[in-house]
Amino acid sequence: MLTVTIPETETFDPVTSMFTTIRSQKLSLEHSLVSISKWESKWHVPFLTNDKKTREQVIDYIKCMTLTQNVDPKVYECIPDDVLVKINDYIDDSMTATWFSEDKQKTKRSREVITSELIYFWMIQAGIPFECQKWHLNRLITLIRVCAKKSEKPKKMSKRKTMDNWSALNAARRAKLNTRG
């Protein structure tokens, strides 16, 4: 969970020609599958794409991430750029110590469009309880990847690799038993 403080801001309403003070507000945010589901149900587009989002979409996602109750909607209009950077850094954080060897290599990304429903499917397929939908999304995705890796059948060794392993085992046994064959 990320906690940010939106500072007190004075705004001007050109319609009424009045200045309004929006009080400082502390927001507790969580980048989770629940947040993405809320956002996608409103915008009807996948959240997890490289497509540029409008400021309105970004602010709306922050609203979906908000756990704090009874937030003045005007607060979201006053989020300063440095707080937006902090929120984006939080969204991009892996939130785990787990890493995958293929992450080190340049791998082809799947062209599959990832939506919240697909992630729920992966959770169901892996037997991950629905309580995890409130985890930081990157941590949940990592858990899904770990489940997928651990449930993969081991790859069959090539004949050459199998023969090399047998030769190494035989050599070790000969050395241990002091025999020639």
Oligomer: single chain
Radius of gyration: 25 Å
Q: Unreliable segments (pLDDT under 50, ≥5 consecutive)?
A: none
Summarize model confidence as the mean pLDDT: 90
User: What general form does the structure show?
Assistant: elongated
- Given the helix and strand composition, which structural class is it? mainly alpha
Order of helices and strands: EEEEHHHHHHH
Give an account of the 3D structure.
The chain is mostly helical and about 180 residues long. It has a domain of about 90 residues. It is built from seven helices and four strands, in the order E-E-E-E-H-H-H-H-H-H-H. The strands form two sheets. A two-stranded antiparallel sheet has the order 1-4. A two-stranded antiparallel ribbon has the order 2-3. Helix 1 crosses helix 2. The chain is elongated, with a radius of gyration of 25 Å. About 15% of the residues are buried. The model has no long low-confidence stretch (mean pLDDT about 90).
Provide a short characterization of the protein structure.
This protein is mainly alpha-helical and 181 residues long. It contains 7 helices and 4 strands, in the order E-E-E-E-H-H-H-H-H-H-H.
